[in-house]
Amino acid sequence: MTLGSPSTILNVDDTEVARYTKNRTLTHAGFKVMDAVSGGQALEMVESIRPDLVLLDVRLPDINGIEVCRIIKARWPSTVVLQTSATFTSASDRARGLEGGADAYLIQPIDPEELVASVKALLRLRAAEESMRQLNATLEQRIEERTRDLHEANLRLREQIEQRERAEAALVQAQKMEAVGQLASTMAHDFNNILASLVGYLYIIRRQSPDPRLHDLVDKAVRATDRGKRLTSRVLTFSRQGEGNVTALDLSATLAGMQEWLAQTVGPSIKIAIPAEGERHAALVDLSQFELALLNLVINARDAMPRGGLIDIGLRQASVASDEGELKAGDYVIVSVKDSGMGMPANVAARAFDPFFTTKPAGRGTGLGLAQVINFAQQSQGIARIDSEPGQGTCVSLWLAAAPHGADLEALHAPLMMAPAHDQPGGGERVLLVDDDEDVRNTVSQMLSDADYRVTSAASGMEALDMIRLDVPDVLVLDIAMPGISGLNVARDARQATPDLPIVFISGHAHREAIDAAQLNDAQLVRKPFQSQELNAAIRRCLDRRPLSY
């Protein structure tokens, strides 16, 4: 039955008069009525026309009406069956009809009004049941949709919680890194002051002694301070306090220069294989960061081989035609560090580059080594990859951006040698030296005095400003990191009174950008530790740029 159309009723009765009477009554009541004279015909018509209600007589010539009712209910459960029977039908017959699935039972002859009312009542019940079924289906669908929405909302909430936890963990790690960086920066500053004092005292010894054998020992001591200077440079690079100096560097020559140092690091039970010098492998890297990254990889390889073994350092070139995730298209130099150690499972290798992740016992590792390695690789426009299996060793590969063909290669700095004498002496100019470290003041004062400068010194920024107010020097030489007033503030205040005052900063870890940001970009910067000729040259450059009217 469709909306607005009359209900279809199948009238099944083998008695013509009774069949005609019921048909006429229901047709006049507005129903669409079709007739069947036997049980078999009734079943065929139910299958073909699917009536809303079957008016079914019990006694039929071929199949009993009760059996026909059971078949209808079995095949088409939603079809309403109203059974009828003659007055002589027993109560047990009526009971069997209802038990067989009939929805109601009427005894003939049936009053027309009762027949119509019964049919309408049964159809209303059928419509109500159908509406209830649809409502249940709708409710089930809505419940399913709501459950799905709640599940998706729960997943989103869980993801947000995980993201927050990751962000909080990253913040904690960043704070730890900042604290480590500040500690490293402070230590490097103090160590550079010690080295500067040491180089100064070596200078004094060499100047005052004519013994050539002592000169040779002094030169060896100065070379040792050069290694200390490079060490502090690596510490500052790790703390992100050092200035990056990306150059085209031949990694083959660099590795050859590091061989002895790395061999001392791993000890006698481990052999290090380094490719022989020959073919050029030039990459765009910062030397100090590269040395620190390689040192971290070699130390990790050493720790993976407590009983000794082999560390094989490889060097090759590769080209990538198209982007491969984080690895961009281009030319690369690949530095690999492979050990014959214990290896690691996949879940450990997947986290190896995470900051503060370590499998070493407490006190044996910080989890920062490989974090620095991957950071260096990314800053070098490349990536770091790790391949490892338990019992098969580990290989870490650094993909570093290759230098353009024909690029000038950075020469590796030679060890410091103590110069026999200054080559750019002064001419009696007045130098104000400001440094909070007494040893630095003493040794640098001696250097400058030997170079024919007239030197006065101050131990703090406040003392220096008081001296400048009384007598402006020809050149100001000062440290940057000092307690109280920093060297940058001293220089700015001095320039307000004397805008063209020549300034030379001496520092072990200051940024050139910090000097430029203080609008002192014409000031010179000399890195501690330094030799007399470096400082003399910087002072001379400042003095030679003075205006003629100064």
Name the structural class: alpha/beta
Mean pLDDT across all residues, rounded?
82
Cα-atom radius of gyration: 49 Å
Task: Please report the total strand number as a whole number.
Answer: 17
Strand content: 15-25%
Largest sheet: number of strands, sense, barrel closure: 5 strands, parallel
Low-confidence stretches: 411-422
Shape: elongated
Instruction: State the end-to-end distance.
Output: 111 Å
Percent in helix: 40-55%
Major β-sheet strand ordering? 2-1-3-4-5
* Number of distinct helices: 15
Describe the structure.
- There is one protein chain.
- With 550 residues, the chain is α/β, with parallel strands linked by helices.
- The protein has helices at 16-28, 39-49, 65-75, 91-99, 112-208, 212-238, 251-266, 287-303, 346-349, 369-379, 438-450, 461-470, 487-497, 512-517, 532-544; strands at 8-12, 32-36, 53-57, 80-85, 104-107, 246-250, 270-273, 282-286, 309-320, 330-339, 383-388, 394-401, 430-434, 454-458, 475-479, 503-507, 524-527.
- The protein has a 5-stranded parallel beta sheet, with helices on both faces. A 5-stranded mixed beta sheet has the order 7-9-10-12-11.
- Helix 8 (287-303) runs antiparallel to helix 10.
Q: Which descriptors would you attach to this protein?
A:
550 residues; elongated; single chain; five-stranded parallel beta sheet; alpha/beta; five-stranded mixed beta sheet; 15 helices; 17 strands
Q: Helix and strand layout, with pairings?
A:
Elements: E1 8-12, H1 16-28, E2 32-36, H2 39-49, E3 53-57, H3 65-75, E4 80-85, H4 91-99, E5 104-107, H5 112-208, H6 212-238, E6 246-250, H7 251-266, E7 270-273, E8 282-286, H8 287-303, E9 309-320, E10 330-339, H9 346-349, H10 369-379, E11 383-388, E12 394-401, E13 430-434, H11 438-450, E14 454-458, H12 461-470, E15 475-479, H13 487-497, E16 503-507, H14 512-517, E17 524-527, H15 532-544
Helix pairs in contact: 2-3, 5-6, 5-11, 6-8, 7-8, 8-10, 12-13
